[in-house]
Amino acid sequence: MTQEPQQQRANLPQAIVRKYEPGDELTIGRIYYDAVHQLTCDHYTEEQRNAWATPIEGGDAWSEKWRRRCDRKQPWVAVVDGEVAGFIELDADGHIDCTYVSPKHAGKGHMSTIMARIFQEARRSNLFRLYAEVSITARPFFERHGFRVVRDNPHTVRGVPILNYIMECWL
Predict the structure, then answer these.
(1) pLDDT score for 13
(2) pLDDT at 60 (0 to 100)
(3) Cα–Cα distance between 138 and 164 in angstroms, integer?
(4) If residue 134 lies in a helix (H) or strand (E), which one and from where to where?
(5) Would the pLDDT of 142 be above 60?
(6) Could you give the CA distance from residue 37 to residue 48 in angstroms, rounded to a whole number?
(7) Ordered strands of the 160-170 beta sheet
(8) What is each CA distance from 73 to 65, 97, 104, 111, in whole angstroms?
(9) Is the pLDDT score of 4 beyond 50?
(10) What sign for the dihedral angle of Cα 154, 87, 32, 137?
(11) What pLDDT, on a 0 to 100 scale, did the predictor assign at position 71?
């Protein structure tokens, strides 16, 4: 007899949610790239994925790019067994800019743990609404957390058309 998904999750290591710390940036950058290229294949073409998440640059440029972004955005991260498993960026106005999970940790509930913290922080900050541009792949996750589609959001990234959704959740 197989375990139900809920029971399987109960047996997984729990995520600790914390703010980004210097030193997390390379892992966060890698999670972004790997999530786009490995988890969205059912919804986006290779051309779209390459436009969305350009190939990883070698040397200090990649590290510096992600260090600057993380310093500015201060993402919330889920740490599982000592490694960053996923991250969500929450802007001061309620905009969720990035929500990405490592393929190794996808579907294990760690992103829901971060999202619960995002809701706590939003309420603590007296926000009334969260909103995001959400991929086709991430839409079910956001819907499970009470977001609804406001409209389709066809746009172009590096000359390549990509569809996502503007979604919001009133608190």
Answers:
(1) 76
(2) 79
(3) 9
(4) strand 129-135
(5) yes
(6) 10
(7) 16-19, 76-80, 83-90, 95-101, 129-135, 160-170, 148-157
(8) 12, 9, 24, 17
(9) no
(10) negative
(11) 96
